Amino acid sequence: MKVTFTLDGDTLSRLRATAERLAIAKSAVVRVSLPRGRGREIDLAIAASALILGARLWTLNPRDFRDLAGLELYRAS
């Protein structure tokens, strides 16, 4: 699955600076490997977005994301 993100100017600048500092392609900076389960493509895209951005993931169904290491989950009420 391939996911495309639209980034604001500040995020794009930080991404370019990080890629340059690490001497790697920009795409390698944001690449995240997650286990893939059948029918989980959307959940994995959401989780990858949260992990890349260092964001908390609010969900009504935390069980869908429990097996993804490093993901900070909050149950929405």
Can you offer a commentary on this structure?
The chain is mainly α and 77 residues long. It has one domain (9-75). It has three helices and two strands. The protein has helices at residues 9-22, 26-29, 41-53, and strands at 57-59, 73-75. It has a two-stranded parallel ribbon with strand order 1-2. The longest helix has 14 residues, at 9-22. It is elongated.
The span between the termini is 30 Å
* Secondary-structure element string: HHHEE
Mean pLDDT, all residues? 77
The helix-and-strand class reads mainly alpha
Strand content: 5-15%
Q: Percent range for helical residues?
A: 40-55%
What attributes characterize this protein structure?
mainly alpha, 3 helices
SSE inventory with pairings:
Elements: H1 9-22, H2 26-29, H3 41-53, E1 57-59, E2 73-75
Parallel strand pairs: 1-2
Question: How would you briefly describe this protein structure?
Answer:
The protein has helices spanning 9-22, 26-29, 41-53, and strands spanning 57-59, 73-75. It is mainly α and 77 residues long.
